[in-house]
Amino acid sequence: MRIAVTGREGQVVRSLVERAARHPSVHVVALGRPQLDLTRPGTIAETIRAAKPDLVVSAAAYTAVDRAEDEPDLAFAINVTGAGAIAEAAATIGVPVLHLSTDYVFSGEGEQPYTEKDRTGPRSVYGQSKLDGELAVAAANARHLVLRTAWVYSPFGGNFVKTMLGLAESRDVVSVVSDQWGNPTSAFDIADGILQVAERLRMDATFDAYGTYHLAGTGDTSWSSFAREIFAQSRRNGGPYAQVRDILTAEYPTRATRPLNSRLATEKFFDVFGWRAPHWQPSLVPVIGMLTGRH
After folding, report:
1. Is residue 116 situated within a structural domain?
2. What is the pTM of this model?
3. pLDDT 10s digits, 230-244
4. Which of 62, 104, 126, 153 is catalytic?
5. Known catalytic residue at 252
């Protein structure tokens, strides 16, 4: 199977390329700027057609959550217009599109994990742009799979794990919010989930369970507890570590409002594709190992 994925340097893209190397029947083609530029929709259709994919993975996005509050036009251009153009390009050549989305499409109220049937209610420009992007993808390609995920980390790019380890290089104590809860998700696990979907599509010509799914790490925790686990694993590897001081979201104001509850229920994905991400703690081990030179 030939998979075209948008973006070249993103966490999921790089993880997918690495994981696909284990599957001789899968070839991943990463498409990025300048050939494919989501701010220039005219570059999208021809670039995707030339890649001759069996599946298009729409992974490139505007992800600067706080900056989006001041750059809404750019966020919507990439996350809505660009995402819709990718889905349309896939539809034009008769292939499905798998689009990555986020927990930020929800308001963050309550303490129960959100299911795919729960009401959305984004509280930030970024969240609204991703929700509108989901709708644009669905409208452009009937054979669409929207995968919402959360708290993504990897050895690549910028993410919470790398930020914590960087802070521990120069600080003995790090303050981290304790009242936001979610599912830490390794980008490697997202890649494995995508490959599971791709295999199902390859083997099942009658597959018709298109729509929205949640794909996130198993188990939930707070940001502060996540940080403690990062430092505990890093310390065991001889890497940097620090003490964690719990603070409330109100003590750490940000430009964009974050959901207090980012938990995602993943039963639907398991029921349809027969795969579930591992628990977030063991999934963290190889990433910490790579970042501390012990893997």
Report:
1. yes
2. 0.96
3. 999 999 999 999 999
4. 126
5. no
